[in-house]
Amino acid sequence: MVTNNKIINRIILYCLVLLTVVTTVFPFLVMLSTALKPNEEALEVVPHLIPKTFTLQHFKDVLNPDIFPFWKYFMNSFQISFFTALVSVIIGTLGAYSFARLEYKGRGLIQKGVLLIYMFSGILLVVPLYKMVTLAGLYDTKLSLIITYLVLTMPVTLYMLGNYFRTIPQSLEEAAIIDGLSRFQVIYKIIVPLSIPAIASVFIYVFMIAWNDYLFASIFIVSEKNMTLPIGLSSLFHTKHYVWGRMMAASLLSAIPVIVLFSLVEKYFAGGLTEGGEKG
């Protein structure tokens, strides 16, 4: 009886996993299928997941600057996302370490206050951030988006890194300080190497938020030279070049940086770094 229950539970688990995989992967399969179909086939009443005729013309059109300035929008998004993630990790490392290790008056209040921003949805922050950006003379600049994304992501950065830093034995830091290391040397020679998985996770999280944002980019950016990919894809809907195949091709290409970034840092997610530090 016990064995039968285990088999049933395992079957249910596998079914749920399969359902999750299918619902996650299916939209991307539809996007890829549409991007590889000619226009006429993509608009058929009865669609087919596997194209009858394969074509790469939509990808060629998207990469054609005369039709769609993909590379300009791509570089704008990449610059904004990369520098936002980099600055977030640098500032977040210092701030999270102070929350996790240093003792000072009001630390708990400040730590809890940082998370208050998540009591408000992004749309409620548009007006105050818009006023701050315009008063600072940063409207329609990439810097305005970098600052905005830092404000939005810093609470999670501090929370994630702070919790990870607390798992690192203080004995490692105490030994390093006895050996003559300063507090900053302890952070970048002891804490940072042992926290690569958390730092990589934070970097990817911030990068994805900045890369996929549409709300703030559509409000703070008006000139084409500073537009990001989400805004560029939206503008493609309102041009004579709008076809479903091109939209799907552009959407697939815009997902490549996140996939590549995750693949590059995936090895750092393996556990054991802290344990190795303890043994050493």
Automatic annotation (TrEMBL):
<feature type="transmembrane region" description="Helical">
    <location>
        <begin position="145"/>
        <end position="165"/>
    </location>
</feature>
<feature type="domain" description="ABC transmembrane type-1">
    <location>
        <begin position="74"/>
        <end position="265"/>
    </location>
</feature>
<dbReference type="InterPro" id="IPR035906">
    <property type="entry name" value="MetI-like_sf"/>
</dbReference>
<feature type="transmembrane region" description="Helical">
    <location>
        <begin position="249"/>
        <end position="270"/>
    </location>
</feature>
<keyword id="KW-1003">Cell membrane</keyword>
<feature type="transmembrane region" description="Helical">
    <location>
        <begin position="80"/>
        <end position="102"/>
    </location>
</feature>
<dbReference type="InterPro" id="IPR000515">
    <property type="entry name" value="MetI-like"/>
</dbReference>
<keyword id="KW-0813">Transport</keyword>
<dbReference type="Pfam" id="PF00528">
    <property type="entry name" value="BPD_transp_1"/>
</dbReference>
<keyword id="KW-0812">Transmembrane</keyword>
<comment type="similarity">
    <text>Belongs to the binding-protein-dependent transport system permease family.</text>
</comment>
<keyword id="KW-1133">Transmembrane helix</keyword>
<dbReference type="InterPro" id="IPR050901">
    <property type="entry name" value="BP-dep_ABC_trans_perm"/>
</dbReference>
<feature type="transmembrane region" description="Helical">
    <location>
        <begin position="114"/>
        <end position="133"/>
    </location>
</feature>
<keyword id="KW-0472">Membrane</keyword>
<feature type="transmembrane region" description="Helical">
    <location>
        <begin position="12"/>
        <end position="36"/>
    </location>
</feature>
<protein>
    <submittedName>
        <fullName>Carbohydrate ABC transporter permease</fullName>
    </submittedName>
</protein>
<feature type="transmembrane region" description="Helical">
    <location>
        <begin position="186"/>
        <end position="208"/>
    </location>
</feature>
